[in-house]
Amino acid sequence: MTDNGNGKGNAVLTKTAAAENGGNGGNGGSRGRFAGLGERARLRAAQSPVWARPVVMALNLVFAPFGVVADVLRDWWSVQGRGMRWVVYGLLVLFALVLPSDVIGDVMSPHTEWQTLLFFPIGGYILLAIGLNVVVGQAGLLDLGYVAFFAVGGYTMAIFGKYHGWNFWEILVVGVLIAALSGIVLGAPTLRLRGDYLAIVTLGFGEIIRISAQNWDYVNGPNGISGIPHPPNLSEWSFPDGQPWEFLGVAGMSPFTYGALDGRPYYYLMLVVIIAVIIFCKRLENSRVGRSWAAIREDEDAAELMGVPTFKFKLAAFAIGAAIGGAAGVVYGSQATSIIPNNFPFILSATILAAVVLGGSGNLPGVMVGAFLVAWLPEYFRGLAEYRILIFGGALVVMMALRPEGILPSRRRQAELAEGTGGMGSLGAEVGGPDTHAAAVEGAK
Amino acid sequence: MFGNFIDQFWPSTIDGLSLGAIYALVALGYTMVYGVLRLINFAHSEIFMIGTFAALATLNAIGLSAPVGGLALIGLVLMLAVVAGLVSGASAVALEFVAYRPLRRRGASRLAALISAIGASLFLQQLFARVLIPWWFDLPKEKGALPIPKHFTETVDLLSIGDFIIRNDKLFVILGAIVMMIALDQFVNRTQLGRGIRATAQDPETAVLMGVNIDRVVSATFMIGGVMAGVAAALYLMRFGETNYFVGFLLGIKAFTAAVLGGIGNLRGALVGGLTLGLIEMYGSVIFGSAWQDVVAFSVLVLVLMFRPTGILGESLQQARA
């Protein structure tokens, strides 16, 4: 959105610099941005075949305001001081705490139990998407077998919890470590590969894990492991009856007692893990590690030449992503009480990847929104349950054609994608002929 | 374990070759598209799946009452291959038009193209699973029941030397794949369009300057890949006698493995890679048990990419990868 009027010749660096300054490249106020929408939609439409133009233009007009609202929010955020930011953080956490309330649940989930839904798939997908975002969004490595680490976490929980009687908290630590280790074991030999090759190897790895679990008698093959223990209760304390707890829908609920029926304690558990992971990832993003990832993503060779130990940092991204996936697996296993190999199909990897890309890879809020939508929409439209993957697949194609950078892209990532860098290079930009995006923008001047 | 292997060496060699021939034909689609666009056409497996259903529909339309053999079988397989090839080729072109061309026009990132491909793949799979199959075969929608056509070939043992038996259907598959492969090789090396494809694979920018119509080349590439997948689908139906909406997924990944194994972008590499992978898989399943067949295939993929990422014959339809 910020590159309004910039030609292809404008280097990524310039755009990134503008993005990092927190400004929007001198684009005037928000009114100016809205005014440009129609023009941009028309431009985008001009690149499509004639028969598709009205549709493309209409859809662009529908999608574009979201981007503008996001831009306005981001500009506002970038000039806020520490105090205001903490107020917003506080409000967000508060919102997350009251989210399981029935009042919200009735609206959001008329067909299924909202509280359980919040734990998985919504919470689970968000955690997985944050983890995959480290690998795909930050380091620019395409991982199509991410579900393998989720499976490693789940099976760690099952094996140590059921066979060895460890408790949840111990297993959480062990599971994260084992998943990170498996990330390193997979990454060490394969990270020399780039782009699609890496994608297909990780896909193969994901299938190897699943099929191995299916053939391994120790974990009961295709029947999986059942009777996985719940986490130990931290406290029997429950919210008192009466206001305001009635209104918030938490009266009488014990948030630290992990039983079989109430989904809310698990949701809060997931929430704690998610918040911890967000803080961790956000700190990483702005550290030396995060900057190295960005450099690797934009141009690996250049990064290597500038002295960034690319292999080490790619491995770190893999291990961290894997660890987060493992954590999600452990938490999931502790609630589900039984897991089977088919809980970890390829389609889950694809779904999480789609969540990351749909939301806007590289941008944590975007990724979370993407994961939420991918998890929630199919549940909301239960009536269409049968066709939901069909619709999901079609939506992916349409979305990529109209807004390949995702709903809420990070500005830096958006600039990279427009330039065709950002991990995988561009698709036939050089063969696009006179009607590529850059040419269209140039011609409009 | 290995005694088993020696006992079953010849049968599993034939099985491996006939399986590998199918991988090779499907691998061609991946290799051609990758050579020209540097893109894993993730939905290619669904093009294959569509081919199996086209062949199945033709078979149902003919309505065979008894298995056929001899010349009639050859004619039948040819007809199925033509129909499936046309349908698959057309679907592949349509796929490119809908899922890739808008992205290509804009020079979008290849990550976006891959996501679009995954989306298209899911869409096609589900279209068959939820809409077309229930409607076509009159199955209740809730049931995941899949149509399994009757075996239509009369399996004849053509040759037998001791325990070593070659069945006609397996031989057919191998021969069919080789014929298609030779035809394609000639097409790419001898015709004008073939030259355009090679030029685009080598250097798209210069190819445009030299007057190559890129859009036509890309469409042709998808068309050829689709036709090959369609022929593979007809042979698959004859060899295995069954299909379902997810038939393409695993086969697709393995065909891609085969393409990488032989050297992606290299047409002859696809044949070598396919046959090699088929053999390794069959030998592997004899040695480790058939449950581990897929694990063996994927392990081969990982090992090849680790030690020789350019494959057995190297990449030749293109320059070095980006």
Automatic annotation (TrEMBL), chain A:
Top-rank taxon, per record: Bacteria
InterPro entries in the cross-refs: ABC_transp_permease (IPR001851), LivM-like (IPR043428)
Pfam families (UniProt xref): BPD_transp_2 (PF02653)
Keywords: Cell membrane, Membrane, Transmembrane, Transmembrane helix
GO MF annotations, alphabetized: branched-chain amino acid transmembrane transporter activity
Subcellular location: Cell membrane
Membrane topology: Multi-pass membrane protein
GO cellular component terms, semicolon-separated: plasma membrane
Protein name: Amino acid/amide ABC transporter membrane protein 2, HAAT family
Organism from which the protein derives: Thermomonospora echinospora
Origin organism lineage: Bacteria, Bacillati, Actinomycetota, Actinomycetes, Streptosporangiales
From TrEMBL, chain B:
Annotated membrane topology: Multi-pass membrane protein
Protein's UniProt name: Amino acid/amide ABC transporter membrane protein 1, HAAT family
Transport is among the record's keywords: yes
Keywords: Amino-acid transport, Cell inner membrane, Cell membrane, Membrane, Transmembrane, Transmembrane helix, Transport
GO cellular component, one term: plasma membrane
GO MF term (any one): L-leucine transmembrane transporter activity
Keyword Cell inner membrane carried by entry: yes
InterPro entries the UniProt entry points to: ABC_transp_permease (IPR001851), BCAA_transport_permease (IPR052157)
Segments passing through the bilayer: 20-40, 47-66, 72-99, 111-137, 171-188, 217-238, 244-264, 271-289, 295-314
